[in-house]
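Tutorial handout. Part one gives the primary structure; part two gives the three-dimensional structure as tokens.
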Amino acid sequence: MTPHQIVPKLADEGIFLASESTFYRVLKAARQTTHRGRSKAPQRCAPTTHCATGPNQVWCWDITWMPSTVKGRYFYWYMVKDIHSRLLVANEVNDAESAERSTPKRASGTPRVGRGKRATGPSPTRSISTRNARP
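Part two.
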């Protein structure tokens, strides 16, 4: 059992030996904090990141739901954005969400870097609110 389980179990019986952090400190001093059990120990992996040092190297895409005047009805803003310059490469508003419209290959062709609208907010983001976009 882990100290996370031992301390509450002993507390239910009215016994207090040490805090959870003290249990972990004692186990660490005895080198007993290693992974136990039949399952494989968890492995840490560095997250996949993309680095853009110039325009048109990495694009990201997003679908934002924009509410309409009818309750429960939305428009879908599909956009492809250049991560380095944060300019919109392609965008489109539709009344239905579909897999064909959501693929980034719709932005193929000549990118509009330098002529696009600059999106505000942190770069690179998965979701951008329409309130933050400049006209």
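Part three, for discussion. Residues 9 and 72 are 48 Å apart (CA to CA). The radius of gyration is 26 Å.
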